[in-house]
Amino acid sequence: MSATFASPDSSAVPLYIIEQDVPDTIPDSARTWADAADFTGGAGATLAVPGPEGGIAMALVGAGSEASRKRSRFDVGSAARSLPAGTYAIQTDLSPARMQEAALGWLLASYDFDRYRKPAKPPAQLIAPASIDAARIEAIAAGEFLTRDLINTPASDMGPDELEQQARDLARQHGADITVTTGDDLLAANFPMIHTVGRASTRAPRLIDLRWGNTGPTLTLVGKGVCFDTGGLNIKPAGSMGLMKKDMGGAATTLGLAHMIMALGLNIRLRLLIPAVENSISGNAFRPQDILTSRKGLTVEINNTDAEGRLVLADALALASEESPDLIVSMATLTGAARVAVGPDLSPFFTDDDTHAEALTASARAVADPVWRLPFHDPYETMIEPGIADLDNAPSGGMAGATTAALFLRRFVDAPYIHFDIYGWNPSAKPARPKGGVGMGARALLDALPKLLNL
Q: Are residues 147 and 36 part of one domain?
């Protein structure tokens, strides 16, 4: 598995990207072979064309029709897994955006989570097309691979301490500074809700704080790091607990995005905050009807211990706001309501800034990382006000669950703010995105940063 392109090689197999019909520019012998194989250029279809000596003379990969491309992405890149092993060089002229998608998709398709099994067969390698920024694509792919690895690793090997080590490794790689506040030290440092959610676990809760960069606008990323979520005393049923190793998908995605930013050397002062906990059950677990006092001083009535992600994020967001950064972005696998609203393929986000929303939407389209804006609907504020405390962590009624969670988080932020409520998981394999953990929204954010931060 590699997030890098192959070195230039004069013996590389020519690769032609075909849109529905094999063009006249392809040699007659290849056209004859394609006709015999009934190859029509359907999205993701591949064909190796033999040479006179029995080797591969060229390869064809289908891009599909314009209509089919609206229904899928990275189809060309999926050829990395379907063509024979070897090195390939694209010969077809494509628009910059489509060439970038093809090249990135090729790298993303080479991903294989093989920590617990024998690796899959090596993917075909691609020489970076001359028209793309190869270093940028490689940095993006490496960040995505990091995110996928973290989400795919089970909680037995990816608890708060292992997540901290991943952050430390990333800091060491890029020369960033990192501090971690752990266990009862969270109380002394005034992170009461992070401590409360994580105290029932045998693995201590913690707040990871990474800083990088000395110049430029300030960006603070906050990622939900619930390494496993039983639901606490409001325990989840088995069907809902099965995927809870992915409940740290927000932290995994922000770590991947942080790698992209640092690897590309962007002129940004970056801060990354990850509250890392397990929501477990023991004699000291927090209870329904408990009232917690947050770092910001707001009190929170607990009406469901399974709505814990917003609690740990709230303390981290309050800390982030104390420095008044130019932008705060939180990312979390926060609510099932978001998944029900838009499904597993879209990244829902919330912002009060129309300019930020437009920039994100345009970037998402440009880099094939779809997002969808959901509303900070102010009239729903009353739904998170229980009367006995300032805030309710789980309003009754089941209505607008994603919006009420986002409104809850907004109460702790005093800076320009974007919140992502992502799923972080592919239920079934798709081109360049195998079944399992996946980054969502990070590439759209990376592309939009120049507009979001006036770089």
A: no
